[in-house]
Every structure is written in C-alpha cells, then in structure tokens.
Amino acid sequence: MRRSFLLLQGPASPFFSALAQRLAEHGHRVSRVNFCGGDRAVAGAMPRAEQHDYRGPLAHLGAWYDALLEAGEITDVLMFGDCRPVHQPMHAVAQARGVQVHVFEEGYVRSHWITLEHGGVNGRSSLPREAAWYLRQRAHLPPARAGEPTGYRMTVRALHDLRYRAANACFMLRFPHYQTHRPRNGLIEYAALAWRVVQQRRFRQHAQRVMHELLGTHQPYYLFPLQLDSDAQILTHSPFADMGQALRVVLGSFARHAPRESLLLVKSHPLETGLINYRRVAQNVARELGVAERLRFIDAGHLPTLLENARGVVLINSTVGLSALHHRRPLMALGNAIYGLDGLTWRGALDDFWCNAGPPDMALYQAFLDYVLHRTQINGDFYTQSGIALALPQVVQRLEHVQRADSAMAGAVVEAVVGVAGVAGVAEVAGVVEIAEVVETAEVVETAETAETAETAETAETAETAETAETAETAETEDTVAPVESRRLAVDLL
Q: What is the full DSSP assignment across 80-94?
C-alpha cells in the first residue's frame, strides 16, 4: 500500500535524506519539515516542494502540525528522538488523527545498532514490562545474531555536526524561533570536551590507582555510573532536576543502609563536559553524610572490569544496566528503564537494595535481549556511508510492515509504563524515579555519542578532538557485553 511519510528532525547526518530517497523508490510519498538551517543542509536532493520550513514560535507548532497532517494526507511520521521540543507537540496530534509515529534513537545495544520503535523510545517504548512474556517468546524467536560492523567513526560524525551547526548559523534569520534541544552553545561544549581529552591521561591514571586499591584489597564496592544532565531522558522523563540530586539520594541511602565495609564508586559519563564539577558535588555530599572516606570518584575506567567486580550497580536507567545484567550484577534502576523487569532488577526500595538484592535471572536476560534485538534494533548507524547503506533496507522493510491502523507489535505488547509510576519502592527513598539515556562503555570522551552531543564548535579543533577521543576509545573499549551465553553475541552496550 502506498503510504505518505512525513520526516521531522533527524540525526545531524545524511541518514534521513537517504531514507527519504529509498522510500520514494518504493513508491511512497515523502515530505519533510525543516526547523533550522542544519535541517535544510542535510535534506539532500529532496525537491523543495516536498520540504516545509517551520519558522513560527514553538507555541503554534501543534496547530501547524495538525493542518499539515490533514492537508498532506500523512499516514506516518518519522523522527529522531521523541522528546525534542519540536517533536513533543506531534505525539498528541498524530494520535488524534490516527497517524503512525516511528521514532529513531541511538541503539539500545551498541555499537553496531540503531533503535527504531513505533510510538516512542525509552520512556515511551511499547516494549512489554512483563517478565514472563519474554520467556514465552523464546518459542517463536530464533537466537539473535551478532551485528555486522558498520565502519562507524566519530570523526565522520563530528564533521557532519560541523556542517549542521554552520548551516544553523547561516540560516539563523530564516528560523528566528528555533529552539535546539541542546542546553549550551556548541562552542562551549566542544571546548569543554577538548579540555577533557587533554586531561584524559590523568583521569586514566587516577582510575587505575582506584581500581588497584579496590581489587588489591578485595574491598566490596557498589558502582553508580552518572548520566548527562542535558539528555532528554533526564529533562523530560525524570523527576531529578540533575545528577546532583540523584547523587544526594543515592549517597544518602548508601550512608544509611549499605554495609559499613563497602564503598560507593561513582563514575562520570565519558561525555561529561565538566562544566558542573560532579566530583566536588559528590565529595561535598559525602562529607555532609559522614561517608567521605567511603566514596571513590573516577572520570575513566574500563567498564567491564568495574562491573565484573562490583557487588551491585545503582543507576537511573542508563543502558549500562544491560551490561550490568550481562555481568550478573545485582541491579537497581531508579527509573523507568526498558529492562526494569522482575527478575532482572531489584524491585524493592533502594534502602533495601544494598544488603538484599541478588543476581539477575540470566535466562530472562537472554530472552529479553533476543527480543529487543529482533524487534527494536537495526544493524547499522546514522553517520557513515557504510552504516547507512546497511541500515536502510532493514528500516524500509520494517516500516512497510507496520499497518496504518495498528502497530506490528500490537496485541502482543502489554501496555507500556510511561512516566515514573510503578517503580516499586523508589518513592520510599525520596520519591524520585527516572528514565533512560545511553551512557558509557568507553572510559574516554566518546565525542558526539548521545542525542547529538556533537552540536559542535565551528572550528577545526573539533574534528581533532573527536579523532583524539576516537583513538583512545578504540584502545580501551573492550567488550562491554561479551559473547552472550552460548550464542557468542558480541555487542557493546553503552
């Protein structure tokens, strides 16, 4: 059946342009909306008649969407990330008109996968939340295959971002009301990331000293990997104002209820700019609570080693959780994580986690991972020619199998838990629950790895920074998820 696809904001890359061309070749009508100069720059060869420039204020966008869907007889809307300011008004409009929404995101499983879900991703994901459901699917699904390498390079991504940011500057007057989802100017972010790269050797040496201390003395520790304040999953789906608030909650519970001989190891996100000094925040909170000697804070470190030797892992809802499950670590997810299932994560109060949580059910973990790979992941990437070419046939095939009035997963999926209700026991800690973001495998600055973090400085130093970070990442990012059980599914999870 011929469909009419409307493309909203995509990655800062040629991915949406190539996808539009492929859909048109399959006989579908394709149009797109440009919200800024960068969107126009990556629109490629799409005829201008099929491009709509939205130049008005954000407050009027919902009504404009409604008129556009009606006039264009749109059947499907595609977007990258479902929480951006320019995307949020579309959800209610599309639902009211019976239009399918398909959301792309960086892969739940890294590093050779991208995510495509109907309706939403992360907090809006329609993945079932019933553990037994995944176990039943093993009778129908074959083992998940290993992903084919895509040739992904961060330098390529950074160059795409440079072009996107430069176009934004050139067309600033044409799009006077555009509001980016990034909290800071790209120049500031990249300058901070460049300084982090300069300090990387010192970060690595300090992390090695901390690990020698922990492993040499066999001192038990819990790992708390931080996420980015700027990520949409924190800003939109989380009751945490920032990671400082999360640190206070976790450190407070740790001080009161964790075994006295244990330590809390806090690891910063590899893309953390350092504009907020979370090391100092953590140290100040720990000092107030009287547990300063039980806190360790690192800005680097080999994640598989950290996970393998941890007594347990506490996080918000980072996909580091999937790596923790692979390493059979007791896991507490304070947010509405896609893996927040009975049998995989501790479902009680955080205060009780420290002394009572046990390892995950590995049969359930394998069933869950198999289903996620089969139903939500696509082998490819958004940035390299080889990665885009690998992904496009799979994307088109999946989109064409979604019926207009129904989702391919409907009837099989338990209603998703959207928001923060239903995360048992977290309210007893501080009433804080939260939702997803993709965080770290590598100990290094993975320049431009989450939600277009590489909204970049318009300077050649940017590409040099990305290349330096990429070299370090290649050297130090080993398998975060090694071969899974007997299937040897080698995937990296961030």
A: E-S-STTTHHHHHHH
Of 85, 87, 106, nearest to 6 (Cα)? 87
Three-state DSSP string of 173-230: CCCCCCCCCCCCCHHHHHHHHHHHHHCHHHHHHHHHHHHHHHHHHCCCEEEEECCCCC
Q: Which residue has the tokens 């909290």?
A: 183
Largest separation between any pair of C-alpha atoms in the chain: 68
CB 174 within 8 A of CB 53: yes
**Peptide bond before residue 253 is cis, with ω within 30 degrees of 0:** no
Among 452, 456, 451, CA closest to 436: 451
Burial of 460 (0-12, 13-18, 19+ CB in 10 A): exposed
Confidence band, pLDDT 50/70/90 cuts, at residue 414: very low
The one-letter code for the residue type at 23 is L
* Structure tokens that stand for 383 in this block: 């940035």
What is the distance between the alpha carbons of residues 437 and 232, in angstroms, rounded to a whole number? 8
pLDDT the model gives residue 252:
97
Lowest mean pLDDT among 80-89, 94-103, 464-473: 464-473
pLDDT tens track for 212-255: 999 999 999 999 999 988 777 777 777 788 899 999 999 999 99
Rg (CA), the chain: 22
Cα angle 211, 217, 223 (rounded to 5 degrees) comes to: 45
Say how far apart CA 408 and CA 26 lie, in whole Å. 20
pLDDT reading at 484 higher than 70: no
Which residues, including other chains, have CB under 8 Å from residue 323's CB and lie 6 or more apart? 303, 304, 307, 441, 480, 481, 493
- Establish how many alpha carbons lie within 13 A of residue 239's alpha carbon, considering only the half-sphere containing its beta carbon: 15
Q: Mention every residue, 6+ apart, whose C-beta is less than 8 A from residue 241.
A: none
